[in-house]
Specification:
single chain; 21 strands; Lipocalin; disordered N terminus; 13% helix; ten-stranded antiparallel barrel; nine-stranded antiparallel sheet; mainly beta; 7 helices; 2 domains; 419 residues
């Protein structure tokens, strides 16, 4: 996908948060990777983070990153009351849709029908977002054996509230009001496990820790990241979840596809039989666009914009070449990064296999390091990416960058057009 790795394993110089070297102390030490090797004892490297040994990259800087940072627009350290109100307004409504579970290699394993009722209560700084998820249950074995007529039942699940206290302390929301996009974190995968148990097992769930024929998330995942992109054409949205296990390996990929106000929603066909080359073809070629990066309060709460050019090519031998050029608004900083990669099934591997892109049906892909612990050991950061190509020549992307402790550094939104 043109610009699969447009920030590379860690952000290019103009996206590096202020005083990343050294990383400031976290408000708390996370339980990130419960049993890691001593990865974090080295001081951060002083060489440009972009200059990976396995890919050719060149960075042309007409002004230092520090000088560019001085010109960036400053923002409040936490989400403002106005931004919270806009976030709540964006989400409010009755959503109908479907939930899809994928293996890390892009194989679809389960699909479940869902409904989501979203409303709010309170005013000003006391306003809260409340969400109730309804999960369609399958017919039970007892019903099937008895031959009874199956009447669909919906399991109700209350999602924790979102308010001024949670958006920064727990969810670390990266919100783009004008672009209608956001990314946030979950502390557990409890909601997602419930969808799988109720939507696949239903009343037959005997609450086994590892139910037969159903893969559920780890009880202590290292990362649960939601990335949400709204359609440019309809009142629909796609919410993608990266789930990384306690050791930092991708465990599963999950997608909600939802439409607001519709009685029924027919999601795009998720056909597993589609050839992997067919999934790749829409992303080949040259893409131009614009990016907006919002850093978290821990990293200065700044906003930076850039114009982007991305080119993805594949030769006759199946070798992938990914070229990404980003120029900061005003032309102060230009980064030119090139990666080589290979394709195996629905997986694209870049940087000698250290970064993987999973091609999903429905014009989507999700990307992450193959091994987060290894990425942290070498680069002291890592990023997750979600892309939705809703039409042949328009795509949106969200990239979420983390530091070595699993704290959010920044969230970047891209809107790109194929030339």
């Amino acid at each position: 996908m043109a610009a699969f790795c447009s920030i590379s394993i860690s952000p290019p110089p103009h996206l590096i948060p202020k005083q990343l070297h050294p990383i400031p102390p976290s408000p708390r030490l996370s339980s990130f990777f419960p049993n890691p090797k001593p990865l974090f004892s080295k001081p951060p490297k002083t060489r440009p983070i972009n200059s990976t040994s396995s890919s050719s990259s060149s960075t042309t800087t007409t002004a230092t990153a520090a000088a560019a940072a001085e010109e960036e627009e400053e923002d409040d350290e936490s989400m403002s009351i106005d931004a919270l109100h806009r976030f709540i307004h964006l989400n409010i409504g009755k959503w109908t849709g479907s939930f899809h579970q994928f293996e890390p290699d892009g194989t679809l394993t389960h699909s479940v029908s869902t409904k989501l009722a979203v409303s709010s209560y309170g005013e000003d700084e006391l306003i809260s977002l409340i969400q109730t998820l309804y999960i369609k249950q399958p017919p039970s074995q007892a019903t099937s054996i008895a031959g009874d007529v199956y009447e669909p039942e919906w399991f109700e699940y209350k999602i924790k509230e979102t308010n001024m206290f949670t958006v920064d302390k727990y969810q670390m929301i990266g919100f783009f009001p004008q672009e209608k996009a956001f990314a946030l974190r979950y502390q557990t995968a409890g909601m997602l496990e419930t969808v799988l148990r109720q939507g696949v097992l239903g009343e037959d769930d005997i609450e086994e820790e590892t139910p037969k024929n159903l893969k559920i998330p780890s009880h202590r995942p290292s990362i649960v990241c939601e990335s949400c992109l709204y359609s440019l054409e309809k009142d629909t949205r796609a919410r993608a979840f990266h789930i990384l296990d306690p050791k930092g390996f991708v465990e599963m990929l999950l997608i909600f596809l939802e439409e607001r106000g519709g009685a029924e929603f027919s999601p795009p066909s998720f056909d597993n039989s589609k050839d992997s080359r067919d999934r790749l073809m829409p992303y080949l070629g040259k893409w131009e666009g614009h990016s907006v990066t919002k850093r978290s309060g821990l990293y200065g709460a700044t906003i930076a914009e850039a114009d982007t050019v991305s080119v993805l090519e594949i030769d006759d031998e199946g070798q992938l070449t990914q070229t990404n050029i980003s120029t900061s608004v005003g032309g102060d900083v230009t980064n030119n990064i090139q990666w080589k990669g290979t394709m195996s099934g629905n997986l694209l591997k870049f940087d000698d296999g250290d970064f993987q892109v999973t091609l999903l049906p429905g014009g989507m892909y999700m990307a992450c390091p193959s091994d987060v612990a290894k990425s942290i050991a070498e680069y002291y950061s890592f990023h997750l990416e979600f892309c939705w190509l809703e039409s042949p020549r328009k795509r949106q992307r969200l990239i979420r960058t983390y530091d070595k402790e699993g704290m959010v550094v920044s969230t970047t939104y891209f809107l790109e057009t194929k030339l």
